[in-house]
Amino acid sequence: MIDVLYFAWVRERIGLPRERVETSAATPRDLVAELVAREDRYALAFADLSALRVALDQDLADFDAPLAGVREVAFFPPMTGG
Amino acid sequence: MTVRVQSAPFDFGAEGAAFAAGLPSGAVVTFTGLVRDPGGLVAMEIEHYPGMTERAIGAIVAEATARWSLDGALVIHRHGRLPPGEPIMMVATAARHRAEAFQAAEFLMDYLKSRAPFWKKEIGADGEEWVAARDADEDALSRW
Asked: Are the beta carbons of A79 and B119 separated by less than 8 Å?
């Protein structure tokens, strides 16, 4: 099981801020593919991965980084702080 | 080094004065970002990622203190619903001379814009819109 968090318009499109997901995905990219296969709202949120960022256990990471041992994955658009 | 992530307003004058009190520095630089109103803005809604926010800002401040010889650094960033004109965030840096204080403050600002997990949404009278990240903000990191 892994905690998956969504922020900003990714959260709005999927319709929830976080969920627990049973997965054997090796990378965030694989996890996205599993979610997209589930329901249209995921396909809508993940339509363009180049417009998204991913964090693994609260550190920015690559979509092809290993998920082994990771407890928390977060998907969000590019940040707009400051 | 102080990092605060909060929904409450802050007084940037009082924060700057408190930051500078007792420091041996010859230079203190402060920057405050306000909610800009391009016309018709009702509020700015700022979402963040609790936990990662503090972690990411802490890493940015640590990088600044490794690059410049600072006597102090302060970052305050708000989240939640903010009306036009209110302060969103501030940075303050203190150093022996002004060049280091200015550079460190600019570095903090550049990284806070695109490496700290905040997302802004403009709430207008006619609807809402997420603020898109600007290429210029990402490009600004390359100078460091």
From this structure: yes
